[in-house]
Amino acid sequence: MRIAQITDAHIFEDPATRFEGCDTRASFEAVLAEIQSLGNIDLIVATGDMSMDGGFVSYRFLNSLFSDCDIPILAVPGNHDEPSAASQSSNFYFLTSAENRDFGRWRFHFLNTKKDGDERGEIDSKDLSELARNIVSAGRRPQIIFMHHPPLNVGSAWLDDMKLENASDFWHIVSQNPNVKGVFCGHVHQDNEISRNGVRVITTPSTCVQFKRHSRIYQIERLLQPGFRVIEAQDDGSFSHLLVRLEPSDEFSVPLL
Q1: Percent of residues, the chain, with pLDDT higher than 90
Q2: Taking Cα atoms as reference points, which of 135, 224, 216, 220 lies closest to residue 183?
Q3: Fewer CB within 10 Å: N-end or C-end of the chain?
Q4: Please, what's the b/e burial string for 130-156 (b: 16 or more CB within 10 A of its CB; e: otherwise)?
Q5: Quick check: is 213 in a domain?
Q6: Helices (H) then strands (E): counts for the chain
Q7: Is residue 18 part of a domain?
Q8: How far apart are CA 138 and CA 88, in angstroms?
């Protein structure tokens, strides 16, 4: 089972608007084309902030691209997203409650960490209870969780202030089951892998602009290109992952200062 994780596209309602000089529509189109060119991806998972302003037109643009894609797509919302606006754009919608899907031996969980009116993340109590039930009902299946906000610090002070607020509740559930192998997140626009209680937490770079690692304040990393992650879930219950970055392009690269 091969999954492509995409995250933090930050598509604007206005096509002319740029994010730190980056054309987020062009970079996202390039990422999606690269994923399709691989030819062996079974599923695309979008882990939030697909829109920058939550506008209907931004989701309509995403839907137009996804409609031409022959790979199934599942998405969870980020703090910038507006799931109600996305649901109006035909085929594109977010999983807004704790859900799971079984693929072969694996169970994948999808969590909504969007907290209305706040950049920080939160999983509501009903979804935490549902996650606990879904983990147990999977039996011996190996499991992976997808969500937007990371449930631990990544070492960038300003981003750590916006992580999952009720992370301790999340870990109380996850740490009780050794079959949860990994957690894949977005939000921080960085490539990180941190283990907690044997669970690997991986954050994936944005399909547009990247944030500088280990920075106390907001800083852009202008030398790193847009990217996505390929996850390979093996039949033996292990998984591997590979970060793929696009080649530099004047069309969407972030200008150097």
Answers
A1: 89
A2: 135
A3: C
A4: bbbebbeebeebbbbbbbbbbbbebeb
A5: yes
A6: 6, 13
A7: yes
A8: 33
The closest alpha carbon to 251, from 9, 11, 88, 21, belongs to: 21
Please work out, in degrees rounded to the nearest 5, the angle formed at the alpha carbon of residue 110 by the alpha carbons of 237 and 87.
Answer: 145
Alpha carbons 31 and 121: distance in angstroms, whole number: 26
pLDDT tens, residue by residue, 45-103: 999 999 999 999 999 999 999 988 999 999 999 999 999 999 887 677 899 999 999 99
Q: Which residues contact 8 (CB under 8 A, 6 or more apart)?
A: 47, 48, 49, 78, 186, 187, 189, 205, 206, 207, 208
Domain for residue 253, yes or no? no
Q: Which of 164, 87, 85 is nearest to 118 (CA)?
A: 164
Domain that holds residue 212: 2-245
Other CB atoms within 10 A of residue 168 CB: 9
Interatomic CA distance for residues 21 and 18, integer angstroms: 5
DSSP assigned state of 11: B
Q: Which residues pair with 103 in a beta bridge?
A: 106
197 torsion bin: left (phi>0), alpha (psi -120 to 50), beta (else) = left
Which residue pairs from 195-198 have beta carbons closer than 8 angstroms and sit at least 24 positions apart in sequence? 196/152, 196/171, 197/171
- CA angle, 207 then 212 then 213, to 5°: 105
Domains held by the chain: number: 1
How far apart are alpha carbons 154 and 172 in whole angstroms? 19
For the record, the structure tokens of 234 come out as 């093996």
